[in-house]
Write a structure and sequence with these properties.
The protein is an alpha/beta fold and 540 residues long. The chain is 48% helix and 7% strand. About 8% of the residues have low confidence.
Length: 540
């Protein structure tokens, strides 16, 4: 019996008399068809209930993924489908899991914390003394002597202020001929413009570090009585990023090829004035040095009009090593093209669908589900991996082979055994399918002690852009998108190396214009975040 005949049978309504007149074979066939149809309906219902539960949790549930069991791994994962954001934007932090059944006792303040908090800040003494008249009134004539002052500290905060620097540059002319000479003075950023390194650094810090769009900055300037227009700020940003910071950006791009492990991610962005087909997406890509290099980090953004493989292919053209990604197929395509490039997968993405499946179930059924068992197995892998954090590269590789690899192999064996036993298209089925499709890439970290087992660092690096995007919604032009990529790169690189972005912006905008006539970019070496030539105020 074909599918059309089955559907016809199910669509029919039979009376009791008709059923009594059917022969046994027809009745059996009718029952089997109905049984099959009911099974299909039940599966579809379960999928709909799961989808509804996932959407409801994404909207109203907690972002952290806690199993609520003992021996939680040192790992925090958040939902990959938060409404409005994509998975890169959903990343919040990588804090340690907490046990649901225990509460951490509130710790006492460490001694000396207040002194440490204010160390290095300028101190402005403020005297509070009694007058002679007040003392005589209180104690009588010559009835007192002064003890040691009571001293306490309070923060003094001065809101942002803008002043005008009026530069007077000496101009001198020879008495013998017509040549003249000007006194040395700072190189201006833009001719006939009021913009300065300090002002532009403040604008960039507000937008690219603190996610404050230009129109809000314009409003704040006006409240201060300053007529600094958002169009001017955008103009300064695009010109100075292109003219000055792009030189340093390209230098960092060359530097990144010296690393063995990179991590990559991308997120959509709306560029309003690009003449493209309605509904097409633009992307901001991010590439950063691997998690295992804490001392000298580089984070680079790149705007591209699509998610095409040609973009990472061009960006990584001179890179030889391992790139950690979220499973996006274009990276696998590039790996096949090059012998010098390997792709590693992300275990965060491997567990994400299982977490969603567990959250979609009633609490009394969660711990008995296959999705929960998958989470527990991945948790065990992370637990063993986290024990290796302080080891050298060689030691980490050795111990991975001894303690982590058996758990990984067991997980994939289990996944293959259970794939056919779950409802097709369910979150659990998608989780198992993802793992098995990505098996080669998820195992890459086992063969290299420098490779992390997830791509969380890249997702963290792109999150500030995603937070900012929520506030300013879109980028106006392609030039603006490219300038934003450059400035976000400098901001995130500064943060990754424990620098203060504002002071780093100011320093770069002061120093780079001095070298515009240089024939090479060697001066950039002194500008690197880890250079000992950086001024002290750039460091935290």
């Amino acid at each position: 019996m074909n599918l059309i005949e089955k559907r016809f049978i199910m669509a029919m309504e039979y009376t009791e008399e008709q059923l009594n007149n059917f022969d046994k074979t027809t009745l059996v066939q009718l029952f089997l068809v109905q049984q099959s149809q009911l099974r299909d309906i039940d599966q579809k219902l379960q999928l709909l209930l799961e989808q509804a539960a996932v959407l409801n949790n994404n909207r109203f549930g907690k972002s952290s993924e806690k199993l609520g069991t003992e021996n939680q791994i040192s790992f925090l994962e958040v939902d990959g489908n938060i409404i409005y954001f994509n998975e890169a934007e959903a990343i919040d932090s990588l804090a340690e899991y907490e046990d649901n059944e225990t509460t951490k006792p509130r710790g006492r303040k460490a001694k000396g914390k207040r002194a440490a908090d204010i160390q290095g800040l300028p101190v402005i003494p403020v005297e509070h003394k009694m007058t002679e008249e007040e003392l005589m009134s209180e104690f009588g004539e010559d009835g007192w002597y002064q003890l040691e002052d009571e001293i306490y500290n309070r923060y003094r905060f001065t809101p942002m202020k803008v002043e005008i620097e009026e530069h007077h540059v000496g101009v001198y002319k020879s008495k013998k001929d017509n040549h003249f000479k000007k006194a040395n003075h700072p190189t201006y950023l833009l001719r006939n413009s009021l913009v300065s390194p300090t002002l532009l650094a403040g604008i960039w810090n507000a937008k690219y570090v603190n996610a404050e769009p230009l129109y809000r900055q314009e409003q704040e300037f006006r409240r201060m009585g300053l007529n600094i227009d958002r169009a001017d700020m955008a103009h300064w940003t695009i010109l100075c990023a292109e003219r000055y910071l792009s030189v340093f950006y390209d230098y960092l791009h060359e530097k990144i090829y010296n690393y063995h492990v990179l991590q990559a991610d991308e997120t959509p962005v709306l560029v309003s004035k690009e003449n493209r087909t309605k509904g097409s997406k633009h992307y901001m890509w991010v590439y950063r040095t691997g998690k295992m290099y804490p001392d000298k980090q580089i984070v680079l953004y790149e705007y591209q009009p699509s998610r095409n493989a040609s973009h990472p292919r061009a960006f990584l053209k001179d890179f030889k090593g391992v790139c950690v990604t979220d499973g996006y197929q274009v990276y696998h395509t590039i790996e096949k093209e090059r012998e010098t490039l390997r792709i590693a997968g992300c275990w965060t993405h491997a567990r994400r669908r299982f977490d969603e499946a567990v959250k979609a179930l009633p609490k009394d059924r969660q711990k008995s589900s296959l999705a929960y068992l998958a989470l527990k197995q991945i948790q065990a892998i992370y637990r063993e991996e986290n024990k290796l954090a302080s080891m050298t590269i060689e030691e980490r590789l050795k111990h991975r082979q001894l303690t982590v690899k058996p758990l990984v192999d067991a997980y994939f064996t289990w996944a293959k055994q259970n794939l056919l036993s779950v409802t097709p298209k369910s979150k659990t089925a998608k989780g198992l399918t993802y793992s098995l499709n990505q098996e080669k890439y998820l195992k890459t970290f086992l063969e290299d002690g420098e490779v992390p087992m997830d791509n969380n660092s890249a997702e963290q690096a792109i999150r500030p852009f995603c937070v900012g995007k929520k506030n300013w919604v879109m980028i106006d032009t392609i030039a603006g998108a490219e300038a934003s990529a450059i400035i976000y790169s400098i901001a995130e690189t500064a943060k990754a190396n424990n620098l203060k972005p504002y002071h780093y912006f100011e320093y770069l905008l002061t120093e780079i214009p001095k070298h515009m006539d240089d024939h090479d970019t060697s001066f950039c070496e002194d500008l690197l975040p880890w250079s000992d030539k950086l001024p002290t105020e750039c460091r935290k």
